[in-house]
Write a structure and sequence with these properties.
Layout (H helix, E strand, L loop, with lengths): L2 E3 L9 H7 L8 E3 L7 H7 L4 H12 L5 H11 L2 H4 L6 E5 L2 E8 L9 H5 L2 H12 L4 E7 L3 H10 L5 E8 L5 H8 L6 E7 L2 H13 L1 H9 L2 E5 L5 H20 L9 E6 L4 H12 L3 E8 L4 H8 L1 E3 L20 H8 L4 H14 L1 E3 L2 H10 E5 L2 H15 L5 H17 L5 E5 L7 H9 L9 H12 L19 E4 L3 H6 L4
Parallel strand pairs: 4-14, 5-6, 5-8, 6-7, 7-15, 9-10, 9-14, 10-13
Antiparallel strand pairs: 1-2, 3-4, 11-12
Helix pairs in contact: 1-7, 3-4, 3-12, 12-13, 18-19, 18-20, 20-21
Length: about 500
C-alpha cells in the first residue's frame, strides 16, 4: 500500500514514511492510493475476535510494510487490560427496552478520552517507522490541541526514547480538568505551552512551523525531524477506523443486527478526523447507512453539509464542549480529495481559497455525493444540557458534553426522518472530564460554580454510581510542571528553544 498527497505531490510513500513525517512535503495530507476492502467473510470472521485482533486486522490492510505479528504485538501492548480494561472500546446498549440505540464508549484509556485509542498505539508505530526507514534523527512531535489530543499525546510519548513532544493549547479554550491533566504531565521529553488564542490559532501555527524551510534546515542540522500526533498524521487516524469495524462486528456477535444490516453512526466532531475514520470503515465495506456529523455552536461543518459552502469567517464561540470549538476542520481535506476522484488540482484550489478568502464552495455534484453519506446538525449549550439530563433520565446513563452534542443532533434527525436504522452513538470522553458542565446539566445551571474539580468529581460519582478514573482523581493536588504562556506569534520560537 502506497500513499499520496491530497495536493498532488508527485512522489509515493510507504506507510512507515507517512507515519514518520506526518504531513506531505507540499503541505497536503497523506491518503492511501486505494481503500482496502473487507469481504463479507472477513467481517463475519472478526465477529468472535477480541478488539486487539480486530485492530491488527484492520491496520494490516493499510500498513503493509509492518508485519501482522508486529501489529498484533503493538495492539496487544497498547490496548492492554491494565490501560483500557477488559474491553478497550465497549459497545453498550443504552436502554434494554429500546433495541435501536447503542453507545460506543471510547474513553476507557489513560486520559479518559477517545484520543487514547490512537495515541497509545502511535508511539509503537512511530518508533517502528524510524527503524524501518533507517532514520537516525530525533523525532520532535508537534501537537495542537483543543483539550484531549494534547494529554493523550503526552501520555503516549512521554519518555519514549528518541522523541520529544511539544503540545500547544488555547489558554482559555479547554476545561479545567483538561488543563490540569496537561499541566501536571511528567516525562523528561514533554513540553506544554498555553497560547493566547483559539484552537485554530494553535493549529495554524503548527502548520506554519511544518512549512518553515529555514526552521527545517536548523532542525536538520541538529539531527531533528518534525512529526505530528494530530489526526493530520495518518498514523493517528488509521487506528480509529478499527473501532468502527469493531462496533459493527460486536452488534453481529450480540445478534442485535442481521448479517449485512446497515447501521447509523453519530459522531460529535470538530477537526473531522473521528467521523472521517467512520467514512473509511464504510468505504471498506462496513454496512453504514448514515454518518451523522454533530457540531456545537461552531457549526461550520453543519453549514457545509447543508449548503456546500465552507466559511470560517464567522464568530467563534467558546462552549461547554471545548474540544469541538474549531472552525478549520483539517481532515475534511481528505474527504474532499476522495469524493472528487482524487482531483488534487481542484482540492488545492479549495484549500487555497480557504487560506486567502476564508471560504470555498464545492460544486453541486460533489455536494450531492457528500449528502448521500453525511447528515449535519448542531446543538447549542442549552440543547447539550437538555440532552445530558434527558439521557440520564431515560437511560440512567451519564454522558459528557461532547457526546451530548451527538445525542441532541440525532434526536432532531430522528424526529424529521423517522429513520428506524439501529444507531451507534460515539461517546468521546468521560463525563468526569467536563464535570462542571455535566453537574450543571444534571442538578441545575450554576451548580458547579464555586465548587472545586475534586468535589464535583466526587459528587458526580455519588450521583451516578460511576467509578472515578484514577487519572482524574486528585488532579487539583498534583504538582504543576508546565506553566508557559505565549502569544501565537511566538510558537516557532518555542520550538527553536528546544533545538539542542
Amino acid at each position: 500500500m502506497n500513499y499520496i498527497s491530497t495536493r498532488g505531490y508527485p512522489g509515493k510513500f510507504s506507510s512507515a514514511e507517512v507515519i514518520q513525517s506526518g504531513i506531505a512535503p507540499d503541505g497536503g495530507l497523506f491518503v492511501p492510493e486505494s481503500i482496502p476492502q473487507l469481504t463479507r467473510e472477513d467481517i463475519l470472521e472478526m465477529k468472535d475476535m477480541p478488539y486487539q485482533r480486530v485492530a491488527a486486522e484492520v491496520l494490516s490492510r493499510y500498513l503493509t510494510d509492518y508485519s501482522f505479528s508486529e501489529l498484533m504485538e503493538y495492539c496487544s501492548t497498547a490496548y492492554s487490560e491494565e490501560k483500557f480494561g477488559e474491553i478497550p472500546v465497549p459497545l453498550v446498549k443504552l436502554n434494554k427496552y429500546n433495541p435501536r440505540e447503542y453507545i460506543l464508549e471510547l474513553w476507557h484509556g489513560p486520559t479518559c478520552a477517545f484520543k487514547d485509542v490512537a495515541l497509545q498505539l502511535l508511539p509503537h508505530l512511530m518508533t517502528a517507522a524510524v527503524r524501518k526507514t533507517g532514520n537516525t534523527k530525533r523525532i520532535m512531535i508537534l501537537t495542537a490541541t483543543s483539550g484531549d489530543t494534547g494529554k493523550a499525546a503526552l501520555e503516549g510519548f512521554k519518555d519514549v526514547e528518541g522523541t520529544e513532544v511539544i503540545v500547544f493549547y488555547p489558554s482559555d479554550g479547554v476545561s479545567e480538568a483538561q488543563r490540569l491533566q496537561m499541566a501536571t504531565t511528567e516525562g523528561e521529553n514533554t513540553h506544554v505551552i498555553a497560547v493566547n488564542g483559539c484552537f485554530d490559532d494553535t493549529q495554524t501555527g503548527v502548520k506554519k512551523i511544518f512549512a518553515d524551510e529555514e526552521l527545517r534546515a536548523e532542525l536538520d542540522a541538529h539531527g531533528i525531524m518534525l512529526s505530528s500526533a494530530n489526526s493530520i498524521n495518518w498514523g493517528r487516524l488509521v487506528p480509529q477506523i478499527a473501532y468502527y469495524v469493531f462496533s459493527y462486528v460486536s452488534l453481529l456477535r450480540e445478534e442485535a443486527i442481521d448479517d449485512g444490516e446497515k447501521i447509523n453512526i453519530v459522531v460529535p466532531t470538530g477537526n473531522f478526523g473521528n467521523i472521517l475514520a467512520a467514512w473509511y470503515a464504510k468505504r471498506m465495506g462496513i454496512p453504514i447507512h448514515r454518518l451523522i456529523c454533530a457540531s456545537n455552536r461552531n457549526k461550520v461543518l453543519s453549514d457545509f453539509f447543508r449548503t456546500g459552502v465552507y466559511d470560517r469567517k464567522r464568530e467563534f464561540y467558546k462552549t461547554n464542549s471545548p474540544s469541538m470549538d474549531i472552525l478549520i476542520s483539517s481532515n475534511l481535506e481528505r474527504l474532499l480529495f476522495e469524493v472528487s476522484d482524487k482531483n488534487s488540482t481542484r482540492l488545492t484550489q479549495w484549500m487555497q481559497s480557504l487560506f486567502t478568502e476564508g471560504k470555498y464552495s464545492v460544486d453541486p455534484a460533489t455536494l450531492k455525493v457528500l449528502q448521500s453519506d453525511f447528515v449535519g446538525g448542531f446543538a447549542d449549550e442549552a440543547g447539550i444540557a437538555k440532552s445530558i439530563r434527558d439521557t440520564y433520565d431515560r437511560c440512567d446513563h451519564v454522558i459528557d458534553t461532547h457526546t451530548a452534542v451527538g445525542f441532541n443532533v440525532y434526536g432532531r434527525y430522528y424526529q424529521r426522518s423517522g429513520d428506524q436504522t439501529k444507531t451507534v452513538f460515539v461517546s468521546t470522553a468521560s463525563p468526569f472530564k467536563f464535570v462542571e458542565a455535566v453537574m450543571d446539566a444534571l442538578l441545575g445551571s450554576g451548580y458547579g460554580k464555586g465548587r472545586s474539580q475534586d468535589v464535583l468529581i466526587r459528587e458526580l460519582s455519588e450521583e451516578s454510581g460511576l467509578v472515578i478514573p484514577p487519572t482524574l482523581a486528585g488532579l487539583s493536588d498534583k504538582l504543576i510542571r508546565h506553566d508557559t504562556q505565549i502569544e501565537k506569534e511566538e510558537m516557532i520560537e518555542e520550538v527553536r528553544k528546544r533545538i539542542s
